[in-house]
Amino acid sequence: MLKKLSFHSHSRIAALTAGLASVAALLAIPTEAGAVANWFGSWDYVLRHDTEGQPLAAFARLRGENGSLLWLTCQRQVLDGEQPPVSFITAAVAQKQYLGRSDPRGRSTVYWFDGGSPEVGHWIYRDRYGQIAEPAQVHAFVDRLAQAQSLTVELSNYRYESRKIEFHLNAGDTRNVADRFRQDCRDILHETGD
């Protein structure tokens, strides 16, 4: 179901992006920009457009246990009219416990899809979330997520104490979100399909 958002719905979009690095980028989007929201089962999905109707950002969010959130973000942002747009794609897990900041290389983070073999990646940590910021790793994560029924992520705080976060996925909804996210991200980043 597609729905044009009202002024009041824009505040929901702002709430969806709270806690992520993309908040600052959203503030730079002109107020005339539009957004379209979709719901894929338990997933929230927002696609933002510029004033010319071109896609600027896609956000997918899933609630997990104990107030945790799984975010997928793809965004193109114009910081200065003289400079080319800045683009990024991330996957992030946010939760209530303070995690602290990591150095630019990130912290080793373990995650499992469907209780299978653990995978280790270097995630960047900021305040209450950890994120994968390397585009190739994000694409691989989304590809794995599209086939999964569960995701467990072991985040670690600044004292390297770990905390497991669980996400239960509806396979069909997650596959649909992943497909939509990949397509919208190709459009946002002006990439060609496979």
Please give a structural write-up:
The chain has a single domain (3-189), classed as Invasion associated locus B (IalB) protein (Immunoglobulin-like, Sandwich), CATH 2.60.40.1880. Helix content is 24%, strand content 39%. The chain is built from four helices and eleven strands; from the N terminus they run βααββββββββαββα. It has helices at residues 7-16, 22-27, 135-145, 171-189, and strands at 3-4, 34-40, 43-49, 55-63, 69-77, 86-94, 107-113, 119-126, 129-132, 150-156, 162-168. A hairpin with a 5-residue loop joins strand 10 (150-156) and strand 11. Helix 3 (135-145) packs antiparallel against helix 4 (171-189). The longest helix has 19 residues, at 171-189. The radius of gyration is 16 Å and the shape is globular. The chain starts with a strand and ends in a 5-residue tail after the last helix. Mean pLDDT is 82; it is low at 1-32.
Supply database-style keywords.
alpha+beta, 11 strands, 11-stranded antiparallel sheet, single chain, Immunoglobulin-like, 194 residues
Summary?
With 194 residues, this protein is α+β, with helices and mostly antiparallel strands. The chain has four helices and eleven strands; from the N terminus they run E-H-H-E-E-E-E-E-E-E-E-H-E-E-H.
